[in-house]
Every structure is written in structure tokens, then in C-alpha cells.
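User: quick one, sequence for these C-alpha cells?
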């Protein structure tokens, strides 16, 4: 069974005293199987957002310990901060990340809430997917009135806690525990100190909008409920505030579904609404972590607005996103510490592609049998498609070809996809070889051990067949890009397309050799026959494509 992963993002009502924050995060780090990804304290909000990830049971334990420690160290009677809050651990959401459903995540949220209520005697409210009563599933509704109004609120029948005592805890307040989809907390900086004007922009864009007014008075429906005029963005919550630490007003946003409203769309819409009010956006600030795709999509969005090719390296897209949204205006923005996939990445899985060229060559030339031909075939494919992508990008920026930039941008984007796939396969092939060696090293003293060893060898061998076959598929696919660049790309770069074709052909033929040699040791002959037949077709098509490309190249060179 694949490992289940959930993320937990507790918010603690302390953002100034680092000794308190460190004691709370130390509780999280004391739990085996949990990784602390990010700690983001805010002085003006007097609040710290912590991000951790791990298997559900371990995360629940870490969250419980952190909530307990926060209750011991934080005194809500003395707390002041810009952000709405109602407890020492104000909110503690669980987010499904991998191989776990929302329904399963809800069960873990309930288990955590019950334990906090029972063992810590702390009032606990459920929210979002974990709350069955949808009249009080919204965090802002639960938190309305904040800590100051909670002593009276908890006595109301409608606001009896879901777990724990229905009694006001003056020191710890109450906490809200739930399950939700991934949320991006995001602040946009304004060149104003006016909270009122920042709020006006927040009302313009947030989904809830603002109250509908007639003659300055709110309009109500037949049930006496105020009618709202929706804002321009869906799945967006926002308020305006003044941050004394920075000396500016901000719009504080929760993007509750970045598939509906991505971060770059929120940023651009705020720029538009702010300009209509004579205010300028100067930058923005990410609170916590963000998925890689959100940053890549933002980079592509801003490049397309500039009519530039989006087929550039991942780090370039991220750099464009950071600069376009001013994510580094208030503090440095380090992608390796803010992008969730980078935080979770296992460096051992990318050992080879992170080497310098000379170190890679030295590693290959050493007495170790890996990296071998499979990894080299994959890397030759990387070089080939990289050359073709370069031709596409040069063509997109060629003077006089302005009306063709999107055509070449699309080709370059495809090239980046092939390049990234082949880069992963460089290390994957070596990892496959190492898996085979590990399987052969298993004990075989008993019949049971022999069976386990044989099965492990067969599983590893199949993987060692599949990886170079994927290299064949990716390198073969890249030839269509290479051919297009030879035929329609910048004629001054046609020789580059020719070299790219030679690389792709070598990658396919070299990878097929690895498929065949590994297939010899695999006992499922039906599988082997299918793979070898498919491989032969890919190899023959590759040779034909390379021949056609070189004919075009040599004709254009003309010497």
C-alpha cells in the first residue's frame, strides 16, 4: 500500500516570542514520521503559521502535542494582533496530500478534536469538511466576535463546542479543528496606509463581496438577511488591514481553491481594482507554502502577457512569478523553502542530475557499474530535446517573426516537458539498477527467503525494463519537436536541430539495448514479447525520423 500523507497547518496566537514558538515546534519535531516544513511567524498579526506533513497517525500525535504546549505557553488574556483569533491554537486544519481521501482525513480530524477535548479539556469546534452542521462550518462564522466575545458565545445553545467543555477558558480560549482542501494564504501589499481603502478593495474581489446598499442602508431579503453583492473572484476570502511592521496596508487573502482562482489571477485582479481607486500594488507576500504548479502557472501567465515563450526552465518560470508578483518585496523568497514539492523532495532521488558536468563524467567513468548505459541514454535524450527547445525559443524571439511567437512557445513548452521527463529517468535508471543489486543481496538460506528473494528480483527487473522503455518513448516523442524545428525554426539554428536528432536517435537505440538486456532475466515472457515488439517499432520509426530530419538539415546547410 502506498504511503498516506496529510498536511497539517496549525496557526498559533504567538508571532513575536521566538522562545515560545520554538518550544511549540520542538513538540512537532519530537514525533517520528513527521516533517516540519515551514514556520512563518508574523509580528503584526502576532501569529505563527506552522506547516507539517507525514502519515496521519504521526501528524495527529504531533498536532496534539503542539496544541497542548501552545495552551501551556500562550495566554490569550494578554494577546493582541491584527489577525482574527479565538484561541492559543486558533485553527488546526488537516489537508489530504497523497493516497488519502477527504473522507478519511475527516475521520482523523474528528479523532484529533475528540482527544484535544477529552484530554486537554479544551473547547473544540469542527470546521469545513469535518463539520456536519453547515451553518457553522465556515471558519469566519465560528470565529465571529473573536476571543473577546467568546465568554458569552460559548454559553449559547447554538455554540456548544463539538468536543470538550462548554466553558470559557480565559487563558487558552478555544480551538477550531477541521479538514479542508489545500489553501494558499496570501497578502498583497499596497502603497497606502488606509485600512478602509484596503478593505474596499478586499470587498471588491472576495467572493462574499459586500452588503448591497440603498440610500446608505443595507438591503435585506424577506427573511431579514442582508443581501450581498458578490465580489469578482470565486473561492476567495479577503480583508484589509494595516501592518505596522511594514508601514503599509495589505489585503489578506485566503485562496480556498487555487484551481478556481489561481494566485496570479488574484494578484492581477487586485492590481486592477486598486488602480481604479488610485492605489498601486507594490508587491505581495506568501504565508506558508504553495504547490509547485501554482508557481509554474503564474510564471507562464506573466510570460504570455509579455508575448514571450513559456518553454523555459522550471527555475526561470519560478523567478518570473516571484518578480511579477513581488513576492520578495518584504523578505527574500527562497523557492526551496516555500514550494511544497521542493520541501518534500528526496535529494537521493536526484543525485546524478544535480552533479556538475565534470562530476557526472567522473561518476560515470568510475569503477562503479552505475550510472551506466541507461542513464547515459536518458541524458543524451535530455541534450537533444534541450537543443530543440533552444531553437524554439530563439525562433519565438526572432526579429520579424513576432506573429509566430505563440507557435514556437507551444513547441518550447513541449520540449521542456520531454526534457524534465528524461531528466527524471537519468536517475531512475540508476535507481532501478540499484534495486536489482539490493534484491540479489537478499538472504536465501531458507525456502521462504528464496521465494522472497526471487520475487524481489523479478519486481526489480521489471522496473529496470520499464525505465529505459520510458526513455525510448520520451526521446522518440521529442523527435517530432526536433523535426518541426529543422523545418520551420530559425534557419540559422538548423544545425542545432541536426545535432538534436542525432542525440535523440542515440538515446532511443541505447535505451532499447538496456530494455533487451534486462528483459533476458524476466520470467514473464508475454510481457517481454510485448515490450520488445513495441520497442522495435519505436526504434525503426526513430531511425526513419532521424534520416528525414538530417535530409532537411543538410539541404538547408547546402555545403
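Assistant:
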Amino acid at each position: 500500500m502506498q504511503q498516506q500523507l496529510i498536511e497539517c497547518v496549525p496557526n498559533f496566537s504567538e508571532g513575536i516570542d521566538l522562545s515560545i514558538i520554538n518550544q511549540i515546534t520542538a513538540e512537532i519535531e519530537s514525533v517520528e514520521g513527521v516533517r516540519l516544513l515551514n514556520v512563518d511567524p508574523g509580528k503584526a498579526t502576532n501569529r505563527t503559521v506552522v506547516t507539517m506533513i507525514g502519515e496521519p497517525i504521526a501528524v495527529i500525535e504531533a498536532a496534539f502535542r503542539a496544541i497542548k504546549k501552545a495552551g501551556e505557553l500562550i495566554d490569550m488574556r494578554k494577546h493582541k494582533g491584527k489577525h482574527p483569533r479565538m484561541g492559543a491554537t486558533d485553527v488546526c486544519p488537516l489537508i489530504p496530500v497523497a493516497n488519502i481521501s477527504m473522507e478519511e482525513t475527516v475521520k482523523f480530524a474528528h479523532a484529533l478534536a475528540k482527544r484535544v477535548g477529552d484530554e486537554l479539556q479544551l473547547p473544540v469546534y469542527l470546521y469545513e469538511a469535518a463539520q456536519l452542521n453547515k451553518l457553522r462550518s465556515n471558519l469566519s462564522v465560528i470565529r465571529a466576535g473573536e476571543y473577546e466575545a467568546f465568554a458569552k458565545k460559548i454559553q449559547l445553545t447554538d455554540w456548544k463546542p463539538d468536543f470538550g467543555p462548554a466553558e470559557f477558558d480565559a487563558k487558552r480560549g478555544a480551538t477550531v479543528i477541521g479538514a479542508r482542501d489545500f489553501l494558499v494564504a496570501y497578502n498583497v501589499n499596497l502603497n497606502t496606509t488606509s485600512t478602509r481603502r484596503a478593505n474596499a478593495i478586499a470587498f471588491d474581489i472576495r467572493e462574499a463581496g459586500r452588503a448591497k446598499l440603498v440610500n446608505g442602508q443595507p438591503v435585506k431579503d424577506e427573511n431579514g438577511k442582508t443581501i450581498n453583492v458578490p465580489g469578482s473572484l470565486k473561492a476567495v476570502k479577503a480583508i484589509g488591514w494595516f501592518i505596522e511592521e511594514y508601514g503599509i496596508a495589505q489585503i489578506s487573502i485566503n485562496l480556498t481553491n487555487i484551481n478556481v482562482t489561481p494566485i496570479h489571477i488574484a494578484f492581477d485582479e487586485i492590481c486592477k481594482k486598486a488602480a481604479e481607486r488610485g492605489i498601486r500594488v507594490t508587491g505581495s507576500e506568501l504565508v506558508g507554502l504553495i504547490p509547485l504548479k501554482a508557481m509554474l502557472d503564474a510564471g507562464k501567465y506573466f510570460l504570455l502577457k509579455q508575448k514571450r515563450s513559456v518553454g523555459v526552465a522550471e527555475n526561470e518560470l519560478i523567478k518570473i512569478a516571484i518578480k511579477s508578483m513581488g513576492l520578495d518585496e518584504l523578505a527574500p523568497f527562497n523557492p526551496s523553502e516555500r514550494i511544497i514539492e521542493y520541501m518534500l523532495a528526496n535529494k537521493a532521488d536526484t543525485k546524478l542530475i544535480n552533479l556538475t558536468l565534470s562530476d557526472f563524467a567522473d561518476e560515470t567513468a568510475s569503477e562503479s557499474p552505475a550510472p551506466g548505459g541507461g542513464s547515459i541514454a536518458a541524458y543524451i535524450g535530455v541534450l537533444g530535446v534541450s537543443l530543440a527547445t533552444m531553437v524554439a525559443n530563439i525562433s519565438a524571439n526572432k526579429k520579424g517573426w513576432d506573429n509566430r511567437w505563440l507557435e514556437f512557445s507551444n513547441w518550447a513548452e513541449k520540449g521542456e516537458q520531454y526534457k524534465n521527463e528524461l531528466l527524471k529517468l537519468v536517475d531512475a535508471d540508476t535507481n532501478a539498477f540499484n534495486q536489482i543489486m539490493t534484491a540479489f543481496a537478499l538472504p536465501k538460506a531458507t525456502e521462504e527467503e528464496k521465494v522472497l528473494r526471487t520475487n524481489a528480483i523479478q519486481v526489480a527487473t521489471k522496473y529496470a525494463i520499464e525505465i529505459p522503455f520510458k526513455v525510448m518513448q520520451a526521446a522518440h516523442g521529442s523527435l517530432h519537436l526536433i523535426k518541426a524545428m529543422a523545418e520551420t525554426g530559425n534557419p540559422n539554428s538548423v544545425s542545432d536541430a541536426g545535432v538534436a536528432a542525432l542525440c535523440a536517435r542515440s538515446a532511443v537505440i541505447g535505451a532499447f539495448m538496456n530494455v533487451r538486456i534486462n528483459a533476458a532475466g524476466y520470467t514473464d515472457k508475454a510481457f517481454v514479447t510485448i515490450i520488445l515488439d513495441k520497442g522495435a517499432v519505436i526504434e525503426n520509426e526513430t531511425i526513419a525520423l532521424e534520416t528525414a530530419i538530417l535530409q532537411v538539415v543538410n539541404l538547408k546547410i547546402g555545403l
